[in-house]
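Notebook, bench 3.
Goal today: get a predicted structure for Non-ribosomal peptide synthetase from Amycolatopsis acidiphila so we can plan the truncation constructs. The sequence was checked against the plasmid map this morning, with no discrepancies at the termini. Length recorded as 1198 residues. Pasting the sequence as submitted so the record is complete.
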Amino acid sequence: AQVKIRGFRIEPAEVEAALLAHPAVAQAVVLAKDTDGVPRLIGYVVPARELITSGTVESISQVDVALDGGIDPRALREFVAGLLPEFMVPSAFVVLERLPLTPNGKVDRGALPDPGFVASTYRPPSTVREKVLAAVYAEVLGVGRVGVDDDFFAIGGDSIRSIQVVTRARARGVEVSARDVFHARTVARLAELALAKEVDGGPPVLAELPGGGVGEMPLLPIGRYLLELGEHHRRFGMWSWLEVPAGMDFDGLLAVLSAVVERHDLLRSRLVDDALEVAPAEGFPVEGLVRRVSCSGRWDDPAWRLSALVELDTAVDRLDPAGGVMAQFLWFDAGPAVPGRLAIALHHFVVDGVSWRILLPDLATAWEGVRQGIRPALPEVGTSARRWAHALIEEAASPKRVAELDFWRSAVDRADPLLGARDLDPARDVRATADSVRVEVPAGVTQRLLAEVPSAFRVGVDDVLLAGLALAVARWRRERGIDASSVLVRLEGHGREEAVVPGADLSRTVGWFTSVYPVSLDLAEVGLDDPGRAVKAVKEQLRRVPDKGLGYGLLRYLNSDTAPVLGKFSSGQISFNYLGRFSTADMPEELRGSGWRRADDCRDLTVGLDPGMPMMSTLEINALVVDGADGPSLGADFWFPAGILDQDDVVRLTALWCAALTEITEQPGGLTPSDVPLVSVEQRELERWEAEYPGLRDVWPLTTLQSGLLFHALVGESGVDSYQTQLVLHLNGRVDADRLRAAGQALLHRYENLAVAFVTDSQGEHVQLVLDNVPLPWREIDLRGLPEPARQEAFERELAADHAQRFDPAAPPLLRMTLVRMAADRSELVLTAHHVLFDGWSFPVLIHDLMNFYRGGAAPRSAGYRDFLAWLSKRDSAAAARAWAAELDGLTEPTLLAGGRTASGDPVISQLDVPLGAELAQALGRRAAESGVTLNTVVQGAWALLLSQLTHRRDVVFGATVSGRPAELAGVDSMVGLFINTLPVRVGCDPARPVRQLLTGLQDRQTALLEHHHHSLSEIQRSTGLKELFDTLVVFESYPFDRAAMTQASSAAALEVTGIRSFSGTHYPLTLMASAETNLRLSLQYQPGVLGRDTVADLARRLVRVLECVAERPDTPVAGVVVLTEEERNWLLRELNPVRVEVPERSVVELVAQRAREFPDEVAVVCGEERLTYGALMARSGRVACGLLSRGVGRGSL
């Protein structure tokens, strides 16, 4: 039998079938249980293997905790979510050893245990902000409880409801914007954004004009459009029927309405030409807008309903914008014991669909104050409608907005065959001639349209409805022999695009902000029998509309230069307006017992507009979802002039629309190019990737270093990959392999960049495909039966074999784990991965999370690396190119220590520690601090000095890694991914320059380049005209490793990490590795096929000599830095050059004088650009001697 969850009817058998499709599930039963008065779907499963000791509850949101019995909860939940819409995924799973049976052998559903939601039915909010936002999500969407990882749009949210989230969150002290809701989507990420705003001092606020919301307000584009239709617009309004609390009297109602009118300025406005004049709140005659009507309270009485219609019609007649009557309030008073009815009629100049969602809670809030005998205090309004209107007039003249003119002209300047017998004629086709067709979409289709299709296609409900309309119109025209693949539709949006005016906040502003704009929905590239492709095509066309169409109205009505250009064209024969979903969720939870609610029993009490008002379109479609007793219902009214279309034509069109919507709900969905904005890709390519990788959820570009590492992985498809890394965790304690494997799997879920596939697009560019549900490669090896040292030798062989096994970049994940049991309480966990996934900084983050997951902790999916890639895409590459060109200007040759030699065969990597004593390491730290430079600069400077002496060059270049983690990116220090970059370091080793000056100069130049640390090394190299710049690399590992946090995490997991062993390499012949966790430690990684071990050991000793000089004599000139030991010097002078030369028994002065006499014109002394010959030297020294003698200085004076 069907069950009803959150307004949706569900067949439990369908959910059971999905659970049974999982290979780890042998039996499954699904039923609905009430918890805290809320019906929830519970899944009971029996694992396929007999390893169960007890039943365990697992929430759909706590996906990182392992279930008993070997079922991976994250995989189970995501497996089911991949087959069913979100509302059909069980709220909790209960694992049982066996299902309880009745004597007849059937499942005893009554004996199934309670899931015990008190333990946790979801990942609950933990911080204050998360708790506020989770409560607001639940209220606005009308669902039970919301977990911090639940996607706002996947559980029923839309753009209008995002505004309600902003309003209610702000009322509770959490500052977010509607744009934040769209970007963050989940409670966890939205709470992070809110915190970031608080840290940054909050968002900017648009300053109000003098007078605030009071004074002259230019009409917005939609208001000017209404005036353009002519004078018959007095009755053009909106009305709503409300149930009001019993016991309310006229004075109480008047106090409530006065508070609302006082708070919302436009309710006090009058129309003056093409503007509204807003009156001050003080003295405004609210009482004259209210009419009390006595009645019996029998709301279904036909006589009352007829009289109510007459009263409403009369009230609408009293609306008079020019006379300042923008509102009418009809109170049907049934006495103090019966809740009455209140009809509110507002002129459209002052209200739109969003405004009603503001007014209803304000009425209830005001009543609470009145009921308590205090003056009602309503929340403040952010930006007034008057301020917004003036800001839009400025925006309409901005160069950016005017640049949109061609876009809008191309949208309207195209063929659009007539829908009916003729064009719309405003003089003939007025409201009095209008007919309509009402269509109700079947309940099952409505449920799928609201819950399943938006998440499958990543669209809004309105996008889906428009795609169905485009298909229906094209098919309708085809039936009539008209070949037209496109239809021009005039769309309506809420128009509250706050991002257009920085600092604007319209979340609590009442007014008519609606934006109207034309869109051509073109299915030329889509077969009319392919509804899935139609949705994707329409979605992409709508995504190309800038600022959701706001600019069209600005250019059409607020810019006198562009208005005539667009005014020549029709904005479409069809207008479409999706009003969203109306439900009890429109009232905040704390006000739902106040007695104020929508009066559904009066919903059909409606009246017409002015009969002489021109029709706005040949076909006007208004769609709306309303929650009823049987769940949500989508209905639409198709209005049309009877002189252009006939009833049968429109009935046929509505049938085709419903059929198209039904077909769309049966499509599998998929991505479109706008879903992957970080790359440029075509639709067919996305579909090809989706066919090969079913879990595709995003496509990213590669960073410059990722591209380089991937190149090296692909050019050597056999043999050792230099960039394959290995991390070994030494574990003490008994390891639960299933839990540890689940913890590893949870890492892939939390960090989506760990499970990417690297492929090539149609342009030959590499991209990374972000996938869901990628299983972790896992092995277990038991060496406990081997004695020592055979056990350790076997382990080392396993490590080597594992490291030698290359990854296929196109077969994710490029990461695997191996658990090696060495003894009863000692194990080794080997994590092997490709460096293209993450850097050294990420290691401690991963280890901490792994221990956290192992002990049963949870964490939300991190979007950090994607945020980084988005940040990277906005960098100024031209400025970076100029900076690096200036840095390397004049460089004429590379610095190659290996002389261009390469290793033959596999590039095997060896490592040798530099013999750096603790005393020297500490001295270097002190010298760095004293000189005002970092230890990294000291190491780089020493390496430069060594290279200079070894290559006999004063201008040297080597590579260095930089962290690449931008400080302005929130949370960057705890992100996982490959952020580092390799960049050239150029050092001028002038012999006369003191070493200390060399170091400070080096640091200054590196600081100047900080903004450009993300530039591509290959581009930098290309700009120099050299094939390569260097063949040595300096890596200074300086990332945070919180030992206390690691110890705490491992203790909580009852698993001690006693040590960590890591190995990673590069393709360079020689790499200097440095770390300074306590004292400075150095090692040299090298390729034995290029540099022998003895050569590298000799380099290490020479480096120590340079560092000793830096530590002991920082002010010595570069020429004074000695890399030779006394033994080496003696060997060079005596053993390498054993020839004896007779030296005359004369002083140096005598020898120089003799040389001057023999070769007076030869150069004797060089200093910079100045040169002295022997003759000039002797003449100058003679003058100095004479000067000294004349001043009494002689032999023995010094």
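Confidence is low (pLDDT under 50) at residues 49-70, 116-121. Residues 234-379 form a domain with the Chloramphenicol Acetyltransferase fold (CATH 3.30.559.10).
Flagging this for group meeting.
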